[in-house]
Design a protein that fits this description.
CATH architecture of chain A: Orthogonal Bundle
CATH topology of chain A: Arc Repressor Mutant, subunit A
Number of strands of chain A: 2
Strand content of chain A: 5-15%
Largest sheet of chain A: 2 strands, antiparallel
Oligomer: homodimer
CATH class of chain A: Mainly Alpha
Largest interface: A-B, 36 and 37 residues
Chain lengths: 149, 149
DNA sequence: CAGTTTTAAGACTCTTTTGTCTTAAATTAG
DNA sequence: CTAATTTAAGACAAAAGAGTCTTAAAACTG
C-alpha cells in the first residue's frame, strides 16, 4: 500500500548508505545482503536512483554506490518521486480522474488533509535525520537479521 | 495506492446506493452501468460485501442489491476492512515485519501519526454523510458520465 | 594485455491484481 | 410449469508488479 515494494527497497538502501561513512562507494551486493533484498532486483532499483542523480555509482573494484548529495539534502520525498512518481500526491482516495477544486470527488476534502500531511512528512524528513535515529537507537532496516551498524 | 481498485469500486457502489431510496433493491447491472464499472467484476466485489453483511442481495426480477444496515451506521472503514482487510492499519510505511513499539522501524512514529488520522477519517465518515454531500453538491462518482442523481 | 570486480541493460519468469466469461441457482411472472 | 430476470460461484485471461538471470561495459590489478 501507498509505496511500492520497489520504492520501499529504494528508501531502505538509501537509509542504509546514510548510516555509513560519507562518499564511500558500497557494493550493491553488500547492501543487498545486509538488507536481505535480491541483488539483481536492488541493482535495478538503484540504477533508477542513479539516473535521477540521487545516488552515484562507480564500476570496478572498490566501486559501488554512494549518495550523490549530502544526506541532509536528500528528503524521503525525493526517493518516492524518483521511483513511484508524483501521481500519489495528485490523486484522491477514490482516484476519480481530474479530481480537484473544480470537479471534486466526494472525499476530496477529507483526503486532501491527509495527503498534505503525508507530503509534508516526506518533504521534511531528510535521510540524514532518519539515519541518525537509526544509529542512535540501533533500529533495524531488515527483518530479523541485525545489521552491523 | 492505499486502497485497491476493488475496494474503491466497493466504496463507489456503496455511496451510489446510499444516494438512492432506502431499502430498495437496485440491480448490479444498473449500478455497474452508472458507475462505468464492469458488471461481472462489480458482482464479485458486491458478493464480498454481501457476505460481510454490509449489503443484502435478492435474486430474480426486481431483485438486486441494497444496503444491509442504515447508511448512518455504515462507515467507510467497514468497507475498507471488508475488502482490503486491516493490514494497512497494522503496517508501517516500510512494511518491516513486526514493527511496533518493541521493534519500531525508523519511520514508526512519523507514519503512526498519519496512519491514525487515516483510521479516524475512515471510522468517522459514514456512508450517509458522504451521500448527503454528493446529493447536495451534485458530485460525481464516475469519470465524465454525469450521474442522474 | 588478461583477468577480476563491479554496475548497466534488458530479456525473461513468477505472482498478484484486475477483469471477463460461463454456468448454476434463486425468484418472479404468466 | 416455463420463461425471464437476477445474483452466486468459479474458471479463465490480461495486465501490472516483483523478482531472476544473462550478457555487456567499465574500471581496476597485476
Amino acid at each position: 500500500m501507498i509505496l511500492s515494494k520497489t520504492c520501499i527497497y529504494g528508501i531502505l538502501a538509501t537509509l542504509h548508505l546514510a548510516t555509513k561513512k560519507d562518499k564511500e562507494y558500497l557494493p550493491i551486493s553488500q547492501i543487498a545482503k545486509e538488507l536481505d533484498i535480491s541483488f539483481h532486483f536492488l541493482t535495478k532499483i538503484l540504477q533508477k536512483l542513479t539516473q535521477q542523480e540521487i545516488m552515484s555509482s562507480y564500476r570496478g573494484p572498490n566501486g559501488g554506490i554512494a549518495l550523490a548529495r549530502p544526506k541532509e539534502e536528500i528528503k524521503l520525498m525525493d526517493i518516492v518521486v524518483a521511483i513511484d512518481g508524483s501521481e500519489i500526491f495528485e490523486q484522491c482516495l477514490l482516484k476519480l480522474p481530474g479530481c480537484g477544486k473544480l470537479k471534486p470527488c466526494p472525499l476530496h476534502d477529507e483526503w486532501g488533509l491527509i495527503r498534505k500531511q503525508i507530503q509534508e512528512m516526506l518533504n521534511q524528513t531528510s535521510v540524514a535525520s532518519v539515519a541518525e535515529k537509526i544509529v542512535k537507537n540501533s533500529l533495524r532496516l531488515a527483518d530479523v537479521n541485525p545489521l552491523e551498524l
